[in-house]
Amino acid sequence: MKEAIERTFYSLAKVDSVSKNESAITSLVTDRLVALGFDTKRDEIGNVIGFLPGAGQPILLNAHLDGVPPGKGHIPLKSGDILKSDGSTNLRADDIAGVAIILEAANVIVTEQKAHPPLVVAFTVQEEIGLWGAKALNLAEYGVTQGIVFDNAFEAGSVVSQGSAYVAFDVEIIGKETHPGKDLTQGANAIQVLLDTGIRAGEADDGKTRVNIGILSAGKARNVVPGNLTLQGEVRSFLQGQDLKARVDQLQSAFTEAAERNRAEVKFSTKQLALAYKVDSDEPLLQTYKNVVEQRGGIFEMKETFVASDANALRGEKGLNVFVVSTGVRNEHSVEETVDLSELEQLGKDLVKVLELASTT
């Protein structure tokens, strides 16, 4: 299976597929699924959905097709079992690794005529820019309630125990410019407002929340008290519902109160892009995966993550009992990105075994 995964990885990685420009790769995976006998379609947003009849309860297999910029000219290099970028762009293993695992496991199931449950394969688009493909998925006709998401999180084979919510926030501080050498009461320093919020980037709430300010713009010149400031930030948190709302409201209050103290105004807006979720360790499909890993002598691990994935939409919003199995990609989104083919092969073999066992339960 290793050689097959490698071939599939290369064929997919060389296709340009940044978010909202996935048409070429969707055609490629559609052809692969059709060749394996899947009843395949694309939905309005561009997701590829394939269905293969089987025995038992249907299982969803998910990975995303899009990647981050530059997203072009990927030429994977190989050293032993390690695939790496050529140094000019990312490797594109996020999430081509997940797509390759699913395709080659399906290939083994079909060509070797192994027992399997009804399979619903959903290759989604626009994951990297807001999980839009997964949010748009409509799988009602398949009756699927459980599944596995293959994406990067930790070491290969690790399972995400809970995923954080993601709230984007935008702030505009409106002060008043003045000369720093004259009467400062005639101005309102927008940067001072930010400093007076007391907000610290990093972890909060005993490790349950992370706050980050990623983009900030303020000031016109060295010798002008800045009258305006804009910033874009995010909150990632395991808090849910009213607890999460209270945490975001606390941020807004910090800006509002600091602005009032400094004779300024503030505009604060938020948009929740992902809901938090927590996996029940007793779920049948997860227990099957755990047994497969442990029976071959592997170590089964569950870890929480602040990194969003399609699982936030599929589980957090749609209520499907999915869990993320990590593909083990290292240094993702960077020119130092790598992935281990032997680990991908093991994940593929584990998936085949899980599907065989699921067909008998």
SSE map:
Blueprint: H1 2-13, H2 23-35, E1 39-42, E2 48-52, E3 59-64, E4 77-79, E5 82-84, H3 93-111, E6 119-124, H4 132-136, E7 146-151, E8 159-163, E9 165-174, H5 190-196, E10 202-204, E11 209-218, E12 228-237, H6 241-261, E13 265-274, E14 277-278, H7 284-295, E15 302-305, H8 310-317, E16 321-326, E17 338-340, H9 341-358
Parallel strand pairs: 3-6, 3-7, 7-16, 8-15
Antiparallel strand pairs: 1-2, 2-6, 4-5, 5-17, 8-14, 9-12, 9-13, 10-11, 11-12
Q: What does it look like?
A:
- The protein is an alpha+beta fold and 361 residues long.
- The protein has 2 domains: 2-163 and 276-358, Zn peptidases (Aminopeptidase, 3-Layer(aba) Sandwich); 165-274, 2-Layer Sandwich (Alpha-Beta Plaits).
- Helices cover 32% and strands 27% of the residues.
- It has helices at 2-13, 23-35, 93-111, 132-136, 190-196, 241-261, 284-295, 310-317, 341-358; strands at residues 39-42, 48-52, 59-64, 77-79, 82-84, 119-124, 146-151, 159-163, 165-174, 202-204, 209-218, 228-237, 265-274, 277-278, 302-305, 321-326, 338-340.
- The chain is elongated, with a radius of gyration of 23 Å.
- The mean pLDDT is 94.
- This is Peptidase M20 dimerisation domain-containing protein.
- Belongs to the peptidase M42 family.
- GO terms for molecular function: aminopeptidase activity; metal ion binding.
